[in-house]
Amino acid sequence: MLNLMVRVSRYLITALVVLYTILDFYYFTKKTESGKNSVVSVQSFLMYTLQFLFTVILFAFYEDITIVILYVASLLVFIIYQSVYPAIYKRADRHLLNNVMFLVMIGLTIQARLKLNKATKQLILLIVAAVITLLVPKILDNARKYLYRWTWFYGLGGLAALLAICLFGQEEYGANLSFTVKGLFSIQPSEIVKISLVLFVAGMFHRSLEFKQIFVTTAVAALHVLVLVASKDLGTALIYFIAYVLMLFVATEQFRYVLAGFGSGTLAAVGAYFMFRHIRVRVATWLDPWSDITNTGWQIAQSLFGIGTGGWIGMGLTGGTPGVIPVAEKDFIFAAVCEEMGIITGICILLILLGILVQFLWISTWMKHMFYKITAFGLACEFGFQILINVAGVIKLVPLTGVTLPFISYGGSSLLSSFFIFGIFEGLFMNKLREDEALERERKEQAARKSSRASAISKAQMKLNEW
């Protein structure tokens, strides 16, 4: 009976995810608020339907009441958050909020499929991240005139956090990544520092674009990258580096900086290859994982096997063996999704992530203030390249780098930083909308005053003519 349920449900899961994704882009064709809200409401219904379907399958598979408790708790969190957020922020982008919660729901489902205790922890982490970042737009609104004044606090504070993790951090999978607090949870500072680095760069470029300022900014950003390389956190270092080069280009509009940046980055990558043995091992594994499939090539080989086995519509939730892939709940969660939910669902998730990225980039182009324009663009770059590096590593397009998939992978620091970025963009969007509404009201008032003066002059002219 369970096998029949799993086999039949995979078609329904694929259909619901595809329909949600179609609506995600159909939303942009709507011109009125009522039309947009209708699309968002249908998307929410599809998400809750999927969540219920996932719960039924997981409960039938595990026969554990924890699944039901997890479902009820997560459902309450989603409903409350999707209700409270627009209630607090009337101008909030509900479409963006919907997509974030959909990705979180997919992530929680895969966590529950792989390790039930991890799903429970992830839900707790979600609640903490959601509550903390619920305040981000409010803080951004109240402190928008002061944020760019704390430039060196962002730069030096972030650098100090990275140095601390490099010197005293806990080694995980060959890299110094996190601190563990009393064995309860771990903190990965690099996830939060990627936000502070963007704020530092935006603040420096807001002050000046003279060569001396650019040189100092580049030196501090390079120190961030070098400390990460020393910690062997190469994936995050790559994200920092690419984001900085692109931010520099957008701020200066000088293509030579891009050439210089990527040229020096290439030389540094070659140097790191010869300096660090683990980098050579990763490159060798990327080039030929089959030569050592039982050891260094096991992870990527199992990832490819899982994606290939799942095919277009997947083996069905609980129908595959994603747990065979090491660290499937973190770096390789995309492979787990594709194995059990199918490549079509995997593509839809990437399209939803792409839609979020496009909204982030659109908001960055909408900003007029240099600090917020560069901040939005830098965060969008980090978000986009994190997705690219994670998925490309899973499908063997690039060597493995150990970065997570935003909103889906397990990990409190990753989830918190993703929600922070979401909160910042919501705050920027609402502030700009408020400013535009104020300008529109002022324009209408000026037009009304001009019309009133013109009418008064016309009446005076008529009286003069009669006289």
What does this 3D model show about the protein?
By secondary structure, the chain is an all-alpha fold. The protein is 77% helix and 3% strand. It contains 17 helices and three strands. The chain has helices at 2-26, 33-62, 65-88, 94-114, 116-133, 136-142, 151-168, 189-207, 211-230, 234-252, 255-275, 277-287, 298-310, 333-341, 343-366, 370-394, 412-466; strands spanning 170-172, 175-181, 185-187. Strands 1-2-3 form a three-stranded antiparallel sheet, with helices on one face. Helix 6 (136-142) packs across helix 17 (412-466) and helix 16 runs antiparallel to helix 17 (412-466). The termini are far apart. The mean pLDDT is 85.
Question: What layout of secondary structure does this protein have?
Answer:
Elements: H1 2-26, H2 33-62, H3 65-88, H4 94-114, H5 116-133, H6 136-142, H7 151-168, E1 170-172, E2 175-181, E3 185-187, H8 189-207, H9 211-230, H10 234-252, H11 255-275, H12 277-287, H13 298-310, H14 333-341, H15 343-366, H16 370-394, H17 412-466
Antiparallel strand pairs: 1-2, 2-3
Helix pairs in contact: 1-2, 1-15, 2-3, 2-4, 3-4, 3-5, 4-5, 4-15, 5-17, 6-17, 7-8, 7-9, 8-9, 8-10, 8-16, 8-17, 9-10, 10-11, 10-16, 11-12, 13-14, 14-15, 15-16, 16-17
